[in-house]
Amino acid sequence: VLFKFPDPPLGSVVIRANLNLDLAQPQLDNLKTIWKQVPKVRGQGHYAHRMLFDGAGKLWISSGERQKFDPAQDLTSNLGKMIRLNDDGSLALDNPFQTQGDIAKQIWSLGHRNPLGMALDLKKQLWVVEMGPKGGDELNLIQKSKNYGYPIVSNGDHYSGVNIPDHATRPEFEAPKLDWTPVISPSSLIFYTGPMFPKWQNKAIIGGLSSEALIIVDTTVQPVKELQRIDMKERIRGLQQAKDGSIWVIEDGKHADLIQLLSH
Q1: 114-120 and 225-231 as β-strands: parallel, antiparallel, unpaired?
Q2: Of 41, 64, 176, 194, which has the highest C-beta tally within 10 A?
Q3: Burial 113-128 (b: 16+ CB within 10 A, else e)
Q4: For residues 99 and 85, is the Cβ–Cβ distance under 8 A?
């Protein structure tokens, strides 16, 4: 009889270290763990765990709910949250949940599902783009102490077919500024500031996986509006603006290409 033991619980950590380039083989010195996913869980879905330094002394970490649903609403867990720390990993004393436990002190907002793209606009406002369930991918403006509703509300439904009430039914939860059904499967987000593509200046650019597209969004209008969708014919994993204003695009998969977008 063969016994299959359950997979061990998994969780991510963020470390800081010094990169030592003085050795024949460079190494990391003075490693220190500054953040841990709590709790570890079985399965490998919805990590998110993107990081962003905001230039104002803070480190932001997007933490997915790991396909466990309810922890996104639990302030004793940092799953399904936007995490805000000082850039050395210490707790930010002006975070909103200071009296609700050590984990809660890390949290800036809650009720997130799988926030995979994170970027600051020109006003230094933080935006995230996150995968919804069956429908309801979201672009959210991240605000202090706000609850974005998952899994209580979503503009999509569970993959099982079970309905999730829409955001409009629960106005106490923060609704997305833009959502997509059918989904775009967002993977990444930048705000373009370069000279090479003038029509895209100050616009959000989102990389799409199942949509195999770049999605251009204007976040400065009310309501927020998708302006353009460019068919890339491959799943898009990541975006980065170069100093000259070109855009580097990395595809997703075993034979992924690295592409540089240039103007004509």
Answers
A1: unpaired
A2: 64
A3: bbbbbbbbbeeeebbb
A4: no
Beta bridge partner(s), residue 204: 191, 217
The residues with which 240 forms a beta bridge, in sequence order, are: 248
Model confidence pLDDT, tens digit, residues 83-130: 999 999 999 999 999 999 999 999 999 999 999 999 999 999 999 999
Q: Are 122 and 135 in contact (CB under 8 A)?
A: no
If you write DSSP's letter for every residue of 156-202 in order, what string do you get? SB-TTS-----GGG-TTSPPPSEEESS---EEEEEE---SS-GGGTT
Band (1; pLDDT cuts 50, 70, 90)? low
Q: Is 255 a catalytic residue?
A: no
Contacts of 189 (CB under 8 A, 6+ apart): 117, 118, 119, 127, 128, 129, 204, 205, 206, 207, 239
CA distances from 166 to 98, 121, 219, 223 (A): 30, 27, 22, 18
